[in-house]
Amino acid sequence: MFSGFAERFGASFAIFRPSQIMEKDVEDQASLIAAADPMTAAIGIFLHILPNDFARYLLGAGGVFLMVNVLFASRLAGRKIRPSSPKPGQMRREFAISMRTTLIFTLSGVASVMAARAGWLDTYYVIAERGWGYFAFTLVMLIVAHDAWFYWTHRLIHHPRLFRRVHRTHHKSHNPSPWTAYSFDMAEAAINAAYLPLILFLMPTSVQAIILFLVHMILRNAIGHCGYELFPSRRDGRPLFDWMTSVTHHDLHHAQAGWNYGLYFTWWDRLMGTEHPLYHEKFAAAVRKPLDGSAVAALSRQAAKSAHKKRGPSRDPAY
Ligand SMILES: [Zn+2]
Ligand SMILES: [Zn+2]
């Protein structure tokens, strides 16, 4: 039943076939869940998910760090966003804190699997049960809804009453590295960990879609913190995929909190007026391309708006 899946996803990988790993992972999980008593099942699932979650962080953040910040660092020098680089001490701290986050993510994973075991969540293993169209739909939904969840909870934890206790650790990395990806306070880790059980409660989802969602999540997260602009640009210096958040987009959030709360897409920041007014200018500078002037115009519009707010409504109705 998994061979069709393996063929579709694995055919182009002669040596390394992620589909085979997924296939094995899915089968392992299925047998663990089938354990007779709930405690044995929960412990078995915990011991199964923990190394998976740890490996995802280690390979995702570590892989991006090795490729971008070590191996290709000199080649990518022309796309470095800031002149300075994160210090080793900062990266060690990020790694240590990320271990705690990994544990919290694992506990959320165990809760999800146990909920599925009890029949509260509808997760399934055979993609053909609901078809490939539904599989693609759920994968897109997982990513789009996660972006919304992240944007709004992220804005919430920037509230002065919550920031110090919930989000300060992440912003200690003023100049982030790929290891910053999971550097969260416990409460922030719990907010992020809550997303998957919640969405799975609302939407029947295949285990394969969940695994792909998690791989995409760690890669976008680690890349967003790598300090080099990896996203392609147009000739005029604007991002080619302007609807996606670039590395500069999230880097600006760390440099100057108060702007750019989005994770994968720029939609929410634009809709809510929270995108940094100099974002396009900073992106153009990161890819060493000339400016088209629109960012400067946006900045003066923003300055006019905040001056208007400070002074209160002007007598001139056109202002
Ligand atoms: Zn933040
Ligand atoms: Zn960040």
UniProtKB/TrEMBL annotation:
E.C. number: 1.-.-.-
Subcellular location: Membrane
Membrane spanning residue stretches: 57-77, 97-120, 132-152, 194-219
Predominant localisation class: membrane
Fatty acid hydroxylase domain ranges (all copies): 140-274
Enzymatic class: oxidoreductase
Pfam families named in the record: FA_hydroxylase
Entry keyword annotation includes Transmembrane helix: yes
Source organism superkingdom: Bacteria
Keywords for this protein: Membrane, Oxidoreductase, Transmembrane, Transmembrane helix
InterPro entries per record: Fatty_acid_hydroxylase, Sterol_Desaturase_Related
Molecular functions per Gene Ontology: oxidoreductase activity
PANTHER family: STEROL DESATURASE (PTHR11863)
Name of the protein in its database record: Sterol desaturase family protein
Organism: Hyphococcus aureus
Lineage of the species this protein comes from: Bacteria, Pseudomonadati, Pseudomonadota, Alphaproteobacteria, Parvularculales
